Amino acid sequence: MPVVNELIRTEADGTLSFGNYQLDTKSKVSDFEHCGDSYKVKTFNEITKLERNGMFVYESVPGTAVNQFKQDEKETSFKVEGDKDAQITLEMEEGAEYEVSVNGDYAGKMKTNIGGKLVLSVDLSDGKATQVNITKA
Q: How far from the centroid of its chain's Cα atoms is residue 26's Cα?
């Protein structure tokens, strides 16, 4: 799974791909239209951040490449790649409980904090995509 050289793009299946953890300097794309929403991505080797309509959606430290990102009221799924293990923060429903799986392995239930943030750590190795599925319990 390659990094997203154009920083953000819509895939043929309607999902979103974004991020480039190989960049040494901060790069961003604003006002990217996807399914009626306006997205902004900031990315480089230290952080990748995605916003939708000015609101937080995704952040990873260090930076990552995300492919096939899709999110609705009940499920969020994506493939993530990076050259180091990453902490990923996602905006979800406040005070809700979610079941998390990584590469098909059940990672347990997690509850969002007061702000609706869900934080998880993912073991990554350069050149290998890791599948993350989060489903509302």
A: 17
Q: What's the burial of 105, exposed, middle or buried (CB within 10 Å: 0-12/13-18/19+)?
A: exposed
For 3-41, the pLDDT digits (tens) are 888 999 999 999 999 999 999 999 999 999 999 999 999
Inter-residue contact 26 to 42 (CB < 8 Å): yes
- Domains in the chain, ordered, with CATH? 8-136 (2.60.220)
Asked if 66 contacts 19 with a C-beta cutoff of 8 angstroms, the reply is: yes
Q: Distances in Å between the alpha carbon of 40 and those of 20, 104, 113?
A: 14, 29, 24
CB neighbourhood size of 96 (10 A): 13
**Calpha distance 26→35 (Å, rounded):** 26
DSSP three-state, residue 63: coil
pTM: 0.95
CA distance 50 to 70: 13
Residue 105 CB contacts under 8 Å (≥ 6 apart), including other chains: none
